[in-house]
Design brief:
The chain is 25% helix and 27% strand. The chain is an alpha/beta fold. Helix 4 packs antiparallel against helix 5. The protein is elongated, with a radius of gyration of 27 Å.
Length: 342
């Protein structure tokens, strides 16, 4: 996931405690720079100045030995480690660390590598990242924090106001530039999201505005940012593919009934099926708008007995749409309607 520049104009900064597995105190890091005997005369002074300007502390310089190699030595107790990093300054004035080789002028990259070492420990001891640069335990903590249900009505409400209320109910830092949502009071949320988890609700509300929820690691644990979706490699999805079979996730969706549609608008079909199967129906309005699909398009199905799933598939296909069964962060099922072409 690309590193994004911290936004200066923050509207939301809600700090809350996540579980201890996602917010570990940074360890102390000492940097020992050993200079090769052929290193340029002013190299040590240059690196001392640049590292200091980059905010790197606890730096020592000494003359090198033939046995010196870039390395990380772990000292101290397991719950309060101290990392001693050895870097080698070579004849070209370049500094070799376990994290790579750096030239003069790259002290900020070194500072970032040392900061990550302090937060996450040596690479060989870290949990592998599963998404968004987060480890499995961090990702689980984010999902748990975003599983809080929406406890207010959203349909017809101002998009900006809904986003604020959704964020306020989270025990998770969420940051965004207040200009992103704009000031259009006529921009309203079309779906009813009450009862769904706030992670799924946020993703659904932000998507039509071209925005996205993006978790990322920080020095104090995971946090989220609300960013422009364009250009993001990973964004928080509107729900998840169920872990279990559809028959267990939403049994009524597969129940059979006598279906007869005669010039019925797609919007009415969606509302009727949602009531019958007792699950929210969310529409991918961003994709619908891009493809020019009209939700008032009228569809037909001759009278026949079929499952609600099959009926919805046949009706939506006539409008170049499709339906996916998804679950929110708390495992509640819902139907996601989007275009056939993505």
């Amino acid at each position: 996931m690309p590193v994004h520049t911290r936004l200066h104009c923050l509207t939301f900064l809600f700090m809350g405690a996540l579980c201890s597995s996602s917010a570990v105190a940074a360890a102390r890091v000492d940097l020992v720079v050993v200079a090769d005997r052929n290193a340029p005369l002013v190299a040590e002074q240059t690196w001392a100045r640049e590292l200091g300007q980059a905010g790197v502390r606890n730096v020592q310089f000494r003359r090198g030995r033939s046995t010196d190699r870039p390395a990380v030595e772990v000292r101290g107790a397991t719950d309060s480690p101290r990392y001693v990093v050895t870097g080698v300054l070579d004849a070209r004035g370049e500094l070799s660390l376990p994290g790579g080789r750096y030239r003069a002028g790259q002290s900020r990259q070194i500072a970032a590598w040392l900061d990550e070492l302090a937060r996450r420990g040596p690479p060989e001891s870290r949990e592998p990242a599963v998404a968004f640069g987060l480890s499995r335990s961090q990702m689980a903590a984010v999902r748990e924090a975003l599983a809080v249900p929406v406890d207010f009505s959203t349909r017809g409400q101002s998009r900006a106001a809904v986003v604020r209320k959704l964020v306020e109910g989270l025990e998770l830092p969420v940051q965004m530039d207040r200009k992103l949502l704009g000031t259009d009071q006529e921009d309203r949320v079309a779906d009813e999201l009450s009862g769904l988890s706030r992670g799924t609700a946020l993703a659904a509300v932000l998507r039509p505005a071209g925005l996205a929820l993006v978790p990322q690691p920080s020095s104090t644990g995971p946090e989220c940012r609300i960013l422009t979706a364009r250009g993001q490699r990973e964004t928080w999805p509107v729900g998840w593919k169920p872990d279990e079979r559809p028959a267990r996730v939403l049994p009524k969706y597969l129940e059979s009934a006598v279906i007869h549609l005669e010039n019925v608008p797609i919007s009415e079909v969606l509302e009727a099926v949602g009531r019958r199967v007792e699950a929210p129906v969310l529409v991918d309005y961003a994709a619908v708008a891009r493809r020019g699909v009209a939700l008032d398009k009228r569809v037909k199905i001759p009278q026949t007995r079929m499952s609600y799933a099959d009926a919805l598939d046949r009706a939506l296909f006539q409008a170049m749409l499709k339906c996916e069964l998804r679950t929110d962060e708390a495992g509640r099922p819902f139907l996601w309607v989007t275009t056939l072409k993505q």
